[in-house]
Every structure is written in structure tokens, then in C-alpha cells.
Amino acid sequence: MTEREATALELVGAPDVGARRLAIADAVSAFWASRAVIWIGGLAALAVFGTTTGAPARLDPLYLTFSYNHLADLLAAPAARFDSAWFLAISQHGYEVNGRPAFFPLLPMLITVGGSLTGSALFAGIVISSTLGVVALYLLHRLVMLDFDAIDARNVVRITAFLPSAFVLSAVYSESLFLVVSVGAIYCARLGRWAPAGVLGALAAATRSTGMLLLLPLVFIYLYGPRADRPPRGFGADRRPRHRPAPELAWLALVPLGLIAYLVFLGLSTGDPLSAFSAQSQWDRAFAPLAAVPLGAWAAIRGVFELVPGDALPGVAGAPTGLLATGMAVRDIVEFGFLCLAGWLVFEGRRRLPPAYTVWTVTALALPLSVPATDEPLMSLPRFMLVLFPLWITLALWARERNRVGRVIAAMLPLLVIYTGLFTTWSMSP
User: Fold this and answer.
1) Which of 275, 320, 358, 419 has the lowest CB atom count within 10 Å?
2) At what angle do helices 3-11 and 16-49 cross, to 10 degrees?
């Protein structure tokens, strides 16, 4: 056991100030160590490969991810690509353009405020996401400490910070914000603080479409626990709730208000309150319950045949060829691999984590798996999985049991560098 591990173990059950200091230290060190990898990898990819021809003008026609300074543009590159342009456009020009309502309003609102204070919406967006990324890891550390020891908490934070899609935690994306409000809501519920849990849940529902689903695990924690504010009433064979409903449960009714407020705003500003959902068609997404699972499996199988020398898979006439086809094949295989990883971690987490965590993971995964894109059924799945913290708690516990935490992080590093490089060069949206 290292000296750091021994110190961490001593802090288990220590005064709260010690646990807070440890959480801050672990969150800051994991975040900035991973950011160093991300910035070095992203800038190296940009220096070697440059940007994809025509991509900036096509994907950021207002050039909002660029400033008037070449050095500043270079430094911002690993944090301002693809969807960053949409968030920045909304913060400065609103929701009038088709497709924008798919991006929920809380992050653009923060960028608007930050931009007015700093004079640069781009700079404000990066600072906001980076700051919230540290806060998210801190809250995650605190949440894990409710059930496990400080070493497990540190492992969870490190694994989360180095996930292949974790570069968005410092980019102008909503993942950092969503992690803060969703982990914060669950943490408050675990402590029995229902007013802030409801408020944070409402903020989650105003941050992205899956935020509304946070109501399910919050209610589950209220009824079944574990809760620090009330001892369990018992748990019989009939699976009745451990805790009786009380007036404080009404605070959770705030969660839907985040979404309702956004829909009302869209109705008043654009005339279409449901454009938050219909805008998904801009990305060739359509609602089909869990259809992304079989479609993603088929895309991966097709990708394997694309990579194997010989005849093409029958029935795929007109598919892309050459380097583009190879890249798409690898992408589809990797994304299906992430889906398999999610399934395995959900299964493993059932016996390691509170049931409410499984409720959250399954419901939050079901939504993106029910709106597959036509040409990429599992589009952005690694990024959607990033904010599902029970997956990474399970992975950290499994890795520690087998003394493989270092190997897990080492295995993720090449993927983090590759994903960051593709993002920075405008080659692939996360």
C-alpha cells in the first residue's frame, strides 16, 4: 500500500473537512492530468494533420469557435469544435434557426452571462465547462464516499477523467454541466436534502433531454433509499417501499419544470414548443424504441466485413468505399463495443450499487438508444455514456478487485488521444 493510499484510508470516517480536502485534491489532479493529455494530443494532431477541408466553414458558418487571434484559436482548438458552434450560436443569436432547439438552454444561458463579463463567449464557454468539470469530479468523489472508501472514490474520478470521450468535460459542451446537476441531485437525495435535489433535477431537465428522466432515480431513492435522513422501515418480500411518502416528496415535482419552462420559452420565441424534439430530424434521428441496439449490431457486423479483405457483405450496395468506408467501419465497431461495455457494466453494477443507480443508467441509456440516426445508429454513444456515473463506479470497483485500475486507465489513454485528435481536426463529432 502506498503512502497516499494509507492516508486515504485514514480519512474514511474522518471529519468532513478531511474528506472534502481529499475530494478536491483528487478531482483537481485527475482533471488537469487528463487535460494535459487532451491538449497535447489535440494540438499534436492539429499540427500533423491540420483540419478537415471545408469542415470549419460548413460546421461553424458563423465562425464562433474562432477568435481574432491565431494563437488563441490554436489553444482553444481541443475545446471548441462541432456542437460548440451550436451552443455559442444560441448564446448569441437565440433559437430562431432550425436545429438549434435540440440544444437545451442552460449552458447557452451561462455562456451568455460569462461572455458579457469577459467579452468573449468562446473563452467564457471553455472556462465554464472546465470549472464545472472539476466540480463534477468533486461531487462524484463525495457521492462515491457515501458507499465506499476513499481509494474507490479516487479511482472513479480518475477513470471518469480519462474516458475516451472525457475531452468534452473541458469543451464548450453540456457534459460538465449535466454531470454537476445530475450527480448533485443524486447526492442531495442520498443525504435527504429534497429541496436542492428538486432544484438540481430541474436544472438537469433544462440542460439536456435526459435530465427529465432523473426524476425516476430520485423518486426511487426517496421510497427505497439508501437515505441518510431516515432509517429504513424494512424491506419485505413484497418489495414495498422502505419509506412512506411525506410532504417533502413534493420537492421532486420541480424536476419536470425545467423541461416545461424550456418548452414554454420555445413556444413564445419560435412558435413551436415541441421543436426541442422535432429538431432531432436535423441529425436524421427518428424515434424507434431501442432500435439502435439491433441497428448498431448490424452496423458493427457490416463494419467487420468491410475491414476483412475479400468480397463485401451482401446487400450493402452503394456503401462508401476507400478510406472513408474504413473509418466508418471502425467507428461503428467501436461504438457497438461501447454499447456492449455499457451492458456489461449495468449487469455488474446491479450487485455492487444501490438499485436507484441502475434505474438511472438504464433509463438514461434507453433514450439515445431509441432515437437512432439513419447512417450511424449509435451516434455519440460514448459521449452519452460519459455522464452515466454508475457505469464508471462499477468499472472502478471491478478494476480494484482485480488490481487493474492502472491497466484500465492505460487502455483508455490511446482512445482518449485518438478521439481528441479527431475532434480537434474537425474529423469526427463526439
Assistant:
1) 320
2) 130
Continuous segment of H or E residues that includes residue 363: helix 355-369
Cell, residue 132: 464545472
**Preceding amide of 226 cis, omega within 30:** yes
As a whole number of angstroms, the distance between CA 180 and CA 324 comes to: 37
Hey, how many other C-beta atoms are within 10 angstroms of the C-beta on 233?
12
**How far, in Å, CA of 239 to CA of 230, rounded?**
18
What kind and span of H or E run contains 247? none
Q: Give the Cα separation of 223 and 237 in Å (integer).
A: 16
Burial environment of residue 61 by CB neighbours within 10 A (0 to 12, 13 to 18, 19 or more): exposed
- Output the CA angle 235-240-245, nearest 5 degrees: 105
State whether residue 180 is helix, strand or coil.
Answer: helix
pTM of the model: 0.92
- The residue written with cell numbers 430530424 in the block is 281
Angstrom distance (rounded) from CA 166 to CA 15: 31
Residuewise pLDDT in 10s, the chain (430 residues): 444 444 444 444 445 788 899 999 999 999 999 999 999 999 999 999 999 989 999 999 999 999 888 899 999 999 999 999 999 999 999 998 889 999 999 999 999 999 999 999 999 999 999 999 999 999 999 999 999 999 999 999 999 999 999 999 999 999 999 999 999 999 999 999 999 999 999 999 999 999 999 999 999 999 998 998 877 654 443 466 777 888 999 999 999 999 999 999 999 999 999 999 999 888 889 999 999 999 999 999 999 988 887 655 554 444 555 677 888 899 999 999 999 999 999 999 999 999 999 999 999 999 999 999 999 999 999 999 999 999 999 999 999 999 999 999 999 999 999 999 999 999 999 9
| Contact partners, residue 21, CB within 8 Å, separation at least 6 | none
Q: For residue 225, what is its C-alpha cell?
A: 433509499
Those residues with Cβ within 8 angstroms of residue 210's Cβ, 6 or more apart along the chain or in another chain: 178, 364, 367, 368, 384, 387
Determine the Cα–Cα distance for residues 173 and 125; give it in Å rounded to an integer: 8
Of 348, 17, 2, the C-alpha closest to 151 is: 2
